[in-house]
């Protein structure tokens, strides 16, 4: 009888340890991360088409195009593995490269506004719409990843599952962060007064 009580106690204590929940949430975060990578790849695949279309404009600023090409090369050169999710330094490096590509593409779109022939080009307009849609998909995928990491990290830090996390080395996962957090937390200066003459 005592033996059965010990077995029952062991089963009940293991059911509350969270091991299976860690496995489930880890897979969910990996799946969400794969979708983020899928959308980043979609964007990277669009860049050569955008650059080729823009190069058709002989007078377009080559410096802007060069920065886009370099940013894409850097973003696609970083090898991402499942271990990247558990390595804050590698994760940050990947995030910075993607941020540089986003910034370079934004500059390209702003500069392209100065070229009426380019704005009238149907292929460029189609690519621009596709790129905007892809940026939205990236945002949605990143939000899903952030939510899955949050759920995993809450489990890793909550009692009693934090004991299981320590035993099996389930450290909290790094999440997306903003590179210029201090800069964007400062409210912008808005001045509606008439310019001085």
Automatic annotation (TrEMBL):
<dbReference type="Pfam" id="PF04011">
    <property type="entry name" value="LemA"/>
</dbReference>
<dbReference type="InterPro" id="IPR007156">
    <property type="entry name" value="MamQ_LemA"/>
</dbReference>
<keyword id="KW-0812">Transmembrane</keyword>
<feature type="signal peptide">
    <location>
        <begin position="1"/>
        <end position="20"/>
    </location>
</feature>
<keyword id="KW-0732">Signal</keyword>
<dbReference type="InterPro" id="IPR023353">
    <property type="entry name" value="LemA-like_dom_sf"/>
</dbReference>
<keyword id="KW-0472">Membrane</keyword>
<protein>
    <submittedName>
        <fullName>LemA</fullName>
    </submittedName>
</protein>
<comment type="similarity">
    <text>Belongs to the LemA family.</text>
</comment>
<dbReference type="GO" id="GO:0016020">
    <property type="term" value="C:membrane"/>
</dbReference>
<keyword id="KW-1133">Transmembrane helix</keyword>
């Amino acid at each position: 009888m005592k033996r059965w009580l010990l077995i029952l106690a062991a089963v009940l204590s293991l059911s509350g340890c969270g091991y299976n929940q860690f496995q489930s949430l880890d897979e969910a975060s990996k799946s969400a991360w794969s979708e983020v990578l899928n959308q980043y790849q979609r964007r990277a695949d669009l860049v050569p088409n955008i650059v080729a279309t823009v190069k058709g404009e002989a007078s377009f600023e080559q410096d802007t195009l060069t920065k886009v090409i370099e940013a894409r090369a850097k973003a696609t050169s970083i090898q991402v593995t499942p271990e990247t999710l558990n390595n804050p330094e590698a994760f940050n490096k990947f995030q910075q490269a993607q941020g540089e590509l986003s910034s370079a593409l934004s500059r390209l779109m702003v500069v392209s506004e100065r070229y009426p022939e380019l704005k009238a080009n149907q292929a460029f307009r189609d690519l621009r719409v596709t790129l905007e849609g892809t940026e939205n998909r990236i945002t949605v995928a990143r939000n899903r990843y952030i939510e899955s990491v949050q759920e995993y990290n809450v489990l890793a830090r909550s009692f009693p599952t934090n004991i299981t996390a320590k035993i099996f080395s389930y450290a909290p996962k790094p999440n997306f962060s903003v590179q210029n957090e201090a800069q964007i937390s400062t409210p912008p200066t808005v001045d509606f007064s008439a310019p001085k003459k």
